[in-house]
Amino acid sequence: MPITTTQTGRPVATVLIVDDLASNLELIEAVFTSEGFNVVKAEHPRTAIDKFEHYTPDIAVVDVMMPEIDGFQLCQILKDMAGKNYFPIILLTALSDRSSRIKGIESGADDFISKPFDHKELVAKVRSLLKIKSLHDELEHSENIILTLAVALEARDPYTKGHSTRVGELSREFSAFIGLTPHDQELVRKAGLLHDIGKIGLSESLLLKPAPLSDEELTIIKQHPIIGE
């Protein structure tokens, strides 16, 4: 979800704070509201899950030591709920041992802050992760525009309808075969989907011509990879 802005254009992010101690919630809330953030509080992980769905916050600060569902588990749940959207989470913990840090990373945490925490450090880490989130959102928006263009291109050319989609899927399967990561496989799939994007610069009369193409027209058609660059 894109971060909202005020009338002056200043970003206003919503922070989800999760801690089973009411006193901690009040303290952290005061820190963020004084910095101009919107705050959503939850004293129980199950409440946090409900509020995540209802308020769609931009970032979460989650205490690790909580009953029933600890911060590590909640981190995994929220990351799964966010799906492909980038949702940064900071774990607030009194645990400083290496194994706890590793467990936090494995659960999907983006950063840690140790108790007792420094207010300025917490706010600085939140602002840093929100900048990363903003870049992720912009990239996702740009990719959606490009993919929409690819779909529009196929709609213009009934003779190759579905071709780009098939190339994308075959490219992804091959990238999986050679051992690329799932992230890189998705990049390869998108590249395959866009391999004919240069056709968007060709006229419909040329793309839809029912009769055989002349030598001159074939030369123009063959220019579409250059146009796509």
Compute the gyration radius: what is it?
Answer: 24 Å
What structural class is derived from the secondary structure elements? alpha/beta
Beta-strand proportion: 5-15%
Shape annotation: elongated
Euclidean distance between termini CA atoms:
31 Å
What's the number of helices? Answer: 10
Topology readout:
Elements lengths: L3 E2 L5 E2 L1 E5 L3 H13 L3 E5 L2 H11 L3 E5 L7 H12 L6 E5 L4 H9 L4 E4 L4 H38 L6 H15 L4 H12 L10 H4 L7 H7 L2 H5 L1
Parallel strand pairs: 3-4, 3-5, 5-6, 6-7
Antiparallel strand pairs: 1-2
Task: Write a structural description.
- The chain has two domains: 4-134, 3-Layer(aba) Sandwich (Rossmann fold), CATH 3.40.50; 136-228, Hypothetical protein af1432.
- Helix 6 runs antiparallel to helix 7 (182-193).
- The two termini are 31 Å apart.
- The chain is elongated.
- The longest helix is centred in the middle third of the chain and has 38 residues, at 119-156.
- The model is unreliable at 5-9 (pLDDT under 50).
- Strands 4-3-5-6-7 form a five-stranded parallel β-sheet, sandwiched between helices. A two-stranded antiparallel ribbon has the order 1-2.
- It has helices spanning 22-34, 45-55, 71-82, 98-106, 119-156, 163-177, 182-193, 204-207, 215-221, 224-228, and strands at residues 4-5, 11-12, 14-18, 38-42, 59-63, 89-93, 111-114.
- Strand 1 and strand 2 form a beta hairpin.
- It is built from ten helices and seven strands.
- The protein has 229 residues and is α/β, with parallel strands linked by helices.
